Task: inverse folding
């Protein structure tokens, strides 16, 4: 959350509890800890139904403590210092401690984004008689925060402590029998209210608090809206840290874009694309492998044109074990056909496709047939380390591997490309690698710039750099899918799936090009040393659902 929005949280929390403290002290003492008010559904019941999205963050110490099982000692010290510095900055003007004063009573936190307020013109002091000056427009933030009160006695103790704080000005107003507290610190007002002695509601705009009170009094809530009610159960992740809810994806984008005076109005075609996604729910949790994110998008099957097909995953076995990054999938030809079909509704996209087709026709290549038409099976793009030849300066090369049922067209396309290379004074020659016939585009004193060949009857590869062609063709070393690193990062991801994104952080750090970006920052290197890798996949069990899963695989703390 931006600092300008997060800074209002602490004084407003204190202000609200201070004001209600003397009024409901008896209730606090007699009522005991609150029950379900700190869960997501309980919080959503006081969030207006107009909310565009909401995020629920748990304060369960057991869930957050799970993170302590990961990371090097150096990384843990760095994170601890960052939290300590954040704590000092947040409470720099008081003697408040989050650990001692807030943590004991604060339950889960829901952060809701309400529709943007009408854009307000900035007041300009323009001398009379001066020419008209364009008025700048600024977007007002519209966030609502609901904090569950799980221990009312601790909250009252905190309220009493805050009575002695300096620099915080309080002003009360009444709305429907509820006391709204306006808290001013450093000239910035924020607003808060305590509802039913169990939920603290905060916002930088008074109007948002009033809407929350209306909701509390009976108006429709975020929990009762059609899209939200079905997704508030969340996503199943172990030790959930946060859940994110978007009940109307297209509506959210429309309102946010429409409220931005500098943004262009969404064309009807784009809006139709957005409406393919009805709602989205995502969860972030911690398990034995690391930090896991799962998301589920509910789709409109009538508008969803993408034909999903799961990927067998066999293509990963064509890459060597030292491959440090990989993207795999299935059916590029089908995705291309979908893109071409959708381009009919987008003049700019259609024009770009026609231009690409025209350029390739000049060299006797049909974009649809010769390039994408035969890519109808599994595919993968992998990055492999190498410091030889043309790859010496960057430290790695890449390989594309395709399964195809149309070898004839694929061979014809590669032959056309070889002929085109010869016209550019590139030496095209054949070389036998591990019993396979490989064609290379050779550059004097640099070796092969590009190579291609067939690994079996249905599998073709194109490699950047001769050493990469050797690594793909000569299969003396173990394959990537048998490596411990690949299993650790992708082994627990959902199956079946449409393919993988995979990154091995340890191997990536050995690549000179990557090191040139991060080696100058010691803190970055320290954090990266605790990350084993990153894995991502997606699947679609039916035309109404798309599921995504990501794992940030972390190294366990050494014992």
Result:
């Amino acid at each position: 959350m931006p600092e300008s929005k997060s800074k209002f949280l602490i004084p407003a929390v204190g202000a609200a509890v201070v004001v209600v403290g003397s009024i409901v002290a008896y209730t606090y003492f007699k009522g005991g800890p609150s029950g379900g008010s700190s869960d997501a559904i309980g919080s959503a019941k006081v969030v207006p139904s107009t909310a565009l999205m909401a995020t629920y963050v748990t304060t369960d110490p057991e869930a957050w403590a799970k993170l302590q099982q990961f990371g090097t000692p150096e990384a843990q010290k760095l994170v601890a210092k960052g939290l300590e510095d954040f704590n000092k900055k947040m409470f720099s003007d008081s003697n408040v401690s989050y650990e001692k004063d807030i943590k004991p009573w604060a339950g889960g936190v829901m952060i809701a984004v309400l529709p943007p307020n009408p854009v307000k013109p900035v007041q300009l002091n323009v001398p009379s008689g001066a020419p008209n000056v364009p008025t700048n427009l600024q977007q007002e933030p519209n966030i609502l925060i609901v904090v569950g009160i799980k221990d009312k006695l601790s909250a009252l103790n905190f309220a009493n402590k805050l009575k002695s704080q300096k620099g915080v000005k309080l002003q009360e107003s009444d709305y429907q029998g509820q006391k709204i507290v306006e808290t001013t610190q450093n000239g910035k007002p924020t607003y808060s209210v305590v509802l039913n002695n169990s939920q603290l509601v905060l916002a930088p705009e008074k109007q948002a608090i009033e809407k929350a009170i209306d909701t509390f009094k009976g108006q429709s809530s975020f929990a009762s809206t059609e899209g939200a009610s079905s997704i508030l159960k969340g996503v199943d992740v172990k030790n959930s840290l946060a859940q994110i809810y978007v009940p109307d994806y297209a509506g959210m984008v429309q309102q946010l874009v429409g409220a931005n005076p500098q943004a262009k109005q969404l064309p009807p075609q784009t809006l139709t694309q957005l409406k393919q996604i009805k709602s989205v729910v995502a969860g972030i949790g911690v398990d034995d492998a690391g930090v896991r994110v799962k998301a589920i998008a509910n789709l409109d099957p009538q508008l969803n044109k993408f034909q999903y097909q799961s990927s067998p995953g066999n293509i990963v076995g064509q890459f060597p074990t030292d491959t440090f990054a990989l993207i795999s999938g299935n059916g590029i030809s089908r995705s291309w056909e979908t893109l071409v079909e959708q381009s009919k509704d987008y003049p700019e996209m259609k024009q770009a496709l026609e231009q690409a087709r025209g350029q390739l026709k000049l060299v006797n290549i049909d974009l649809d047939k010769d390039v994408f038409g035969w890519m109808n099976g599994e595919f993968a793009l992998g990055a492999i380390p190498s410091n030889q030849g043309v790859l010496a300066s960057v430290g790695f090369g890449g390989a594309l591997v395709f399964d195809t049922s149309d070898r004839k067209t694929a061979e014809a396309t590669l032959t056309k490309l070889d002929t085109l290379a010869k016209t550019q004074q590139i030496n095209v020659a054949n070389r036998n690698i591990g019993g396979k016939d490989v064609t290379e585009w050779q550059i004097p004193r640099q070796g092969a710039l590009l190579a291609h060949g067939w690994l079996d009857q249905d599998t073709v590869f194109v490699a950047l750099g001769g050493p990469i062609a050797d690594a793909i063709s000569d299969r003396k070393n173990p394959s990537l899918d048998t490596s411990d690193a690949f299993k650790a990062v992708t082994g627990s991801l959902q199956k079946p799936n449409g393919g993988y994104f995979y990154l091995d952080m340890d191997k990536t750090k050995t690549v000179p090009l990557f090191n040139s970006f991060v080696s100058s920052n010691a803190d970055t290197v320290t954090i990266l040393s605790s990350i084993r890798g990153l894995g991502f996949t997606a699947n679609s069990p039916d035309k109404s659902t798309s599921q995504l899963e990501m794992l940030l695989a972390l190294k366990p703390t050494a014992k």
Q: What stands out?
A: The chain has 21 helices and 22 strands. Residues 73-90 form the longest helix (18 residues). Residues 491 and 535 are 9 Å apart (CA to CA).
